[in-house]
Write a structure and sequence with these properties.
This is Class V aminotransferase. This protein has 406 residues and is of the alpha/beta class. Helices cover 42% and strands 15% of the residues. It has a seven-stranded mixed sheet, with helices on both faces. It has a five-stranded mixed sheet with strand order 1-13-14-12-11. The chain has a two-stranded antiparallel sheet with strand order 6-7. β13 and β14 form a beta hairpin. Bound molecules: pyridoxal-5'-phosphate. The site of pyridoxal-5'-phosphate has 12 residues, from α3.
């Protein structure tokens, strides 16, 4: 076994935007004994998690749970609904949108990548207007699906999914609507049914606070209908056999039992806190982070305040400073991991995750670590960000107290 003696005391600060820290309650739930996946108790567990997860997606329709990372659920969404050579319209919001597009090419689809020029696409959300115009121009209805990323984890931008739905409707276009909310789910409001999404893709290791290893496809009746005629090859990912087995709480193969215990626990924790409270907590922590970043005099990667991500904040560094060198100092001196710049943003920024099992003091310690690291790396900062973050968080705490007393 490798010895992780780099983390000698206290907790490692895992402030990357997924995997996020796993709460002790969830780790304990995972330590229950592994049971027979064809036995009677398993069916009860299966039905419980299949039902519970619907509340998180805000759907009445089936949610498929795969023993796979989010990337697998991306493939499942495409391969169950589309046929070789189908045109799909995707939007360039960042690295994850780019990877999903690359997968579409590899599967034999014909993706068209809409986006703002240069790096602008990576600093703004999905432009619903551009999607509407493109769909209106598609008189022959060749585009079979529109695919967008809800929370672009590589940049810290949360796009308006309801606006994309409206754009598709305004164009009167029959394309399916596929959304990746792998890092948005259980951090920021998401409404699978109300927003008319056909397949929502998500994963376990971000807002759900689970370890990596399970992922989801939330379906619509239209998506299920489409899967009956879609011709892309699929076997492991095929919805039909899974839906059949799920009726009684089972899977056609061995699911990851202990992660399902964890999922059950996570759903209970999230629903006990209340989804709206979970979203408000993420909004608050994100706002405190942005106040600190502004006090430092650094730039937030997301340019449009309407689409600031409640999940993570991308911080740009001044020209000539290698963001990865700053991250390395923070990792080695303060035992904290920050997200690196991906793709076009490599070395130019880092990402502070404030998702999942995170509260005011977790965030303040995180910001203190970032600030100390910036100073050690010789990044010129205007002033400490700590007073700004602390003032905002204490203000918010007093608002909550007043509300509780009223
Ligand atoms: C994490 C993430 C993925 C990839 O998920 P894996 O579990 O790493 O396969 C895809 N899209 C987004 C938006 C993500 O945050």
């Amino acid at each position: 076994m490798i010895k992780l003696d780099f983390h000698p005391a206290g907790r490692h600060f895992l402030q990357i935007p997924g995997p996020s820290p796993v709460p002790d309650r969830i780790l304990r739930a995972m330590s229950y004994p592994t049971i027979d996946h064809r036995g009677p108790e398993f069916g009860a567990l299966g039905l419980s998690v299949l039902d519970g997860i619907k509340k998180i997606f805000k759907t009445q329709h089936p949610v498929i749970i795969y023993p796979a990372s989010g990337t697998g659920a991306w493939e499942a969404a495409l391969s169950n609904t589309l046929s070789p050579g189908d045109e799909v319209l995707m939007f360039e919001t960042g690295h994850f949108a780019t990877l999903w597009k690359k997968m579409a090419v590899n599967l034999g689809l014909k993706p068209e990548f809409l986006g703002l020029p240069g790096i602008e696409g990576w600093r703004n959300g999905v432009q619903a207007q551009m999607i509407e115009e493109r769909l209106r121009a598609d008189k022959e209805r060749k585009i079979k699906a529109v695919c967008v990323v809800h929370n672009e984890t590589s940049t810290g931008v949360t796009s308006d999914i309801a606006a994309v739905r409206k754009a598709i409707d305004a164009a009167g276009h029959p394309a399916l609507f596929l959304v990746d909310t792998i890092s948005g789910l259980a951090c920021v409001d998401y409404r699978h049914d109300e927003w008319g999404v056909d397949v929502t893709v998500s994963g376990s290791q971000k807002g759900l606070m689970l370890p990596p290893g399970i992922s989801f496809n939330a379906l619509s009746p239209r998506a299920i209908e489409a899967s009956k005629t879609a011709k892309l090859p699929r076997a492991f990912w095929g919805w039909d056999e899974i839906l059949e087995a799920n009726k009684t709480g089972y899977w056609p193969y061995t699911p990851n039992t202990n992660l399902l215990y964890a999922l059950q626990e996570a759903v209970e924790m999230i629903l006990n806190e209340g989804l709206d409270n979970v979203f408000a907590r993420h909004d608050k922590l994100a706002e405190a982070t942005r106040r600190a970043v502004r006090a430092w005099g650094l730039e937030i990667q997301c340019r449009d305040p309407k689409v600031y991500s409640p999940v993570l904040t991308g911080v740009m560094l001044p020209e000539g400073i290698n963001a990865d060198a700053v991250r390395k100092i923070i990792y080695e001196r303060f035992d904290m991991s920050l997200g690196m710049g991906l793709g076009k943003m490599k070395g130019r920024m880092f990402r502070i995750g404030h998702l999942g099992d995170c509260n005011d003091l977790t965030l303040l310690a995180t910001l203190a670590g970032v600030e100390m690291g910036l100073r050690l790396a010789g990044v010129e900062i205007v002033t400490s960000g700590m007073p700004a973050a602390m003032e905002y968080l204490s203000q918010q705490a007093s608002v909550v107290q007043l509300a509780a007393a009223a």
